[in-house]
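Recall that a protein's primary structure is simply its ordered list of amino acids. Everything else, from secondary elements to tertiary packing, is in principle encoded there. The following example makes that idea concrete.
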Amino acid sequence: MWLFPPRATTPDLLYDFKAEPGEKVVFDEGVWVEDWGYVGRKVYVIDRVDYLTVNGQRYRRQYVKNENGEQADIWIEGVGGPNLFCKGWPDENYVLSCLVDGNEVFSKDDFTRTEKEAAPYNRMLAVGKKWNLSYTDRVNPDNSYFFDYEIKSDTIIGGVRHFRLFSHNLDIKGDDKELGLLFEGNKRVYSIWTGLSNPDKLLYDFGIHAGEKVNYHIINNVRSIECDEIRHDGNTLRRFWMGYEPYLSSSAWNPIHHALDWWVEGIGSSTDFIRPYLWTPARDFRLESCTLNGDTLFTYADFDIPEMAVPDMPEAPYHSMLAEGKSWLYHYTCGHSDPETGEISRTEYDVTYTLRGDTVIGGREYRKMYEEHEGKCGYHSAWREDGRKIYAAYPNGRDSLCYDFGLPYLGQAPYTYQNGLYRAAYLATKDVIQAGGQYHTRCWFINDRFDEMSLGCWVDGFGSNNGLIYPHHETNYYLPYWHFVSCTMPDGTVITAKDLQGKAVEYDGGILELDATSLHLDNNRIYDLSGRVIEHPIPRHIYIKNGRKYVK
């Protein structure tokens, strides 16, 4: 094979596919490389020759060494080398694939395959194929359901075969809903959704390799962690362990495996077939089975997903949160941008919540919560405790789960209101702290974007450091944010934000016994009822000293 580069008077040798082991191949004039010019004279020696079959095509493969006896290149008859024009530079300008009429016939992995027939690509789309899924609502199990996606027909558009995809909720009677069209090419699967004018959307890229990204239209940091092959019903299928890049780089928590989803060539995702980029740590969506014309092709068990390792999470004895007379002080802040001038302003004020008095709602006993801010005080809601779960009943009659201190690892917390949307949060880990002379369990959470525990923590007996009523507001300049300032116990002991963020302690199951002088309320230090240190107390005001209230 010869190349006649620009401005050259004679062609240059690129490959000699007829050369046998031991023969030299000399490139006298070098090779033209755009922007670099000619690369100098090179001498190669054919080390050995073998054959391999890829996608039904048999190829002759030559292993090439340089004059120093070092492995320098691999040539495939009909394809070329992995660097095509650049001899001996295996890490530069790497050929990703060789295509014929847009279809991949040879990939970069095929250059180094063993001397056995390479597994052909298993296409995903076929009329009569169905994906049966389940959705599990871990907060409200009654909202869980089963549904499926099915390809019912196909059509030709622009010379390309497209498949019509329908969905059906098995728990709701009604006609199937047409979602749009799917088409496949070059080991990629694309979608064209009904009613959208946007261009084609990538769903899967089964041609990626370990460490490479899949760039979606709404997210571009999905990365393949590992690729391997599995044998299933006599077929060899490529399997991909997929991860979300911020999660992979997270130092906050780290399960034994980082993969959040598994893809299998010809089948798709182990989670949501049409949204393989929307994952949750709890894996709420799950592919139960994939069938073709009623015959089962693949089940969830066939993904062979390893068990999630559960880390050691210590827990101290549980402390009730709803004691009569307990009060909380939170600081509210929110940034605002003027739509006309762009000027940024902030709204800030303190809010005090106090438990005072009991009531009965729907046959259940509740404790009434009062809210006070900017000189106004009024009834806010009623709260009750059921084991380690804490509920709030609002004047509109809605009874909502606010806290669950019994969540397992990666258990989903009650939905949280963030930036106008209810988002999910998941338990990342637990530890134990000392506060108010006792051991308390602290729960750390992570959101569904896998940020490093940006949602803060809960501490049993005290609540959340990011809002008592809405426990999971994220720290963001433009989002309403409630910052925990202090919690005053019925006996006057004050727990501050510093306590909730304190260093974790080793816990052996014992009970902490401390006297007043060993608490964070040191002798001769005076606090107001909000837990703030007071340097110059005002006469006839109530303060806290050594864990007790007194009047100056």
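DSSP finds two helices and 40 strands in the chain. Helices lie at 245-248, 497-500.
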